[in-house]
């Protein structure tokens, strides 16, 4: 449920001025005002995609959890409500309207609104990528002491993920019995990781042979590490025992 700006007071009525204007019920088209943006696109994956946008819409804030330390009425946070309707879904399910809320006003170039919802659809790829980096490549596994070390480890993980993407054309499909076969152009990084060693064995190595060298001097004998370690969070499972 969203509301438009209240506007000016009507009549000589005394008291507090109104805070909420016309109501916008997402499921009731009769309450929808004239959109500030309307477009129709044709996509191969979803068919005809129609988009509408309503600007300066806000919701009623019933609780004060986010602004408990402030006084007065809760703030009104205005934004842009974007409605999206597609002709069909890839899996064959019946499509339903999708509503998004953007904290930004409608830009001068209304085509930017179509860019907003297209970025929202890509969030699934981003979420799966972060999950793969954490679970398969060990991004969150080491407990590093310094931020610089964490940045270096992050770049190493990014380089490893990039290597899996580059070696995908040479990867041989190696799937478990319960996994479905997929085209070569859509092989996931997890499938490539299973055959990464075999693919690298058949690849050409343009680098020169490694040069042997002696180990560094390391810490002097009797020296102590003077960098104070960071206390890592224990978690709730430790306290529940």
Task: Give a written overview of the molecule.
This is Transposase IS4-like domain-containing protein. InterPro entries: RNaseH-like_sf (IPR012337), Transposase_11 (IPR002559). It holds the Pfam family DDE_Tnp_1. Residues 118-161 form the Transposase IS4-like domain. Residues 25-36 have a biased composition (Basic and acidic residues). The protein is an alpha+beta fold. The protein has a domain at 2-6 and 18-61 and 74-121. It is 26% helix and 15% strand. It is built from six helices and six strands, in the order ββββββαααααα. The protein has helices spanning 111-121, 123-135, 147-166, 189-194, 196-202, 236-240, and strands at 2-3, 23-24, 37-43, 47-57, 79-86, 98-102. The chain has a four-stranded antiparallel β-sheet with strand order 3-4-5-6, with helices on one face. It has a two-stranded antiparallel ribbon with strand order 1-2. The protein is flat, with a radius of gyration of 28 Å. It starts with a strand and ends with a helix. The model has no long low-confidence stretch (mean pLDDT 84).
């Amino acid at each position: 449920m969203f509301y438009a700006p209240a506007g000016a007071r009507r009549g000589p009525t005394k008291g507090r001025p109104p805070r909420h204007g016309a109501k916008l019920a997402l499921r009731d088209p009769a309450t929808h005002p004239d959109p500030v943006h309307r477009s129709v696109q044709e996509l191969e994956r979803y068919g005809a995609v129609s988009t509408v946008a309503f600007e300066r819409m806000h919701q009623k804030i019933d609780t004060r959890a986010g602004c408990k330390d402030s006084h007065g009425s809760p703030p009104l946070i205005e934004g842009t409500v974007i409605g999206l309707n597609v002709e069909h879904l890839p899996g064959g399910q019946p499509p339903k309207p999708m509503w998004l809320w953007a904290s930004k006003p409608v830009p001068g170039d209304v085509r930017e609104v179509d860019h907003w919802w297209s970025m929202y659809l890509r969030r699934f790829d981003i979420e799966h990528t972060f999950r793969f980096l954490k679970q398969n490549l060990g991004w969150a596994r080491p407990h590093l002491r310094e931020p610089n070390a964490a940045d270096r480890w992050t770049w190493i993980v990014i380089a490893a993920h990039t290597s899996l993407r580059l070696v995908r054309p040479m990867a041989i499909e190696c799937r478990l019995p319960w996994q479905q076969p997929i085209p070569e152009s859509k092989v996931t990084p997890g499938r490539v990781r299973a055959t990464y060693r075999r693919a690298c064995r058949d690849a050409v190595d343009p680098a020169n042979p490694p040069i042997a060298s002696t180990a560094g001097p390391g810490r002097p004998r009797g020296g102590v590490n003077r960098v104070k370690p960071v206390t890592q969070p224990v978690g709730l499972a430790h306290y529940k025992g």
